[in-house]
Amino acid sequence: MNMLKKLILIALLLPITVFAAKKECGIKPSYDITINRESVHIFDKKNDLIIIPNGNVILNKETISLNPSLQKELIQFQQDLRQQLPLLEQQSLSLLTEVKETFEKAIKNQLGDDNELKSELNKLYKRLVKLLHASIITENGNTRFSYRHFNNIKKDGEDIGQRIFYNVVGGSILHFEFFKNYGAIKQISKNEWKAQKPKLKAFDAHICSVITDIDAQYKQILSQLNQSIHN
Question: Average per-residue pLDDT in the chain?
Answer without folding.
Answer: 80
